[in-house]
Write a structure and sequence with these properties.
- It contains six helices and six strands; from the N terminus they run E-E-E-E-H-E-E-H-H-H-H-H.
- It has a two-stranded antiparallel ribbon with strand order 1-2. It has a two-stranded antiparallel sheet with strand order 3-4. Strands 5-6 form a two-stranded antiparallel ribbon.
- Strand 5 and strand 6 form a beta hairpin.
- Helix 2 packs antiparallel against helix 3 and helix 3 crosses helix 5.
- The longest helix is centred in the C-terminal third of the chain and has 18 residues.
- The termini are far apart.
Amino acid sequence: MFEEKAEGCLSEPIPPRMRIDLFLGSVCHTLKMSKGMVSRSAEYLKYGNLRNRVCSKEDIFLFKALAGRHRDIEDMHRLARIGLDWDVIVGELQAQRRNLDSTDINLLKRSLEALNTAYGITAPPATTAKLSNIL
């Protein structure tokens, strides 16, 4: 399944058009891998002592919102269409508010606005009120 390269790195063939991002400690230089994120993640791959976990769709939605690229807005749309627990998103933002600077907050707002403009997707009204208190 894996091949060991000369420099000691492990590699596994990745299906075409699939991209995998690896984060160590922080995501997008802003959010920290919190205990909540780890508890919501699921083990995906095990190789010896290496454990690869996949983040929850709510946490991935946050990462995408912080990246704010066009393709990330499309991914946010896909995640929202399959269903999100907006309370998880709000809770994580509340827990990590101190890690967000004004640039991050503006990017999050723009990403949510772009999601609404492009796809007509908004958070439920109660969640929108909570988000406005955070952002």
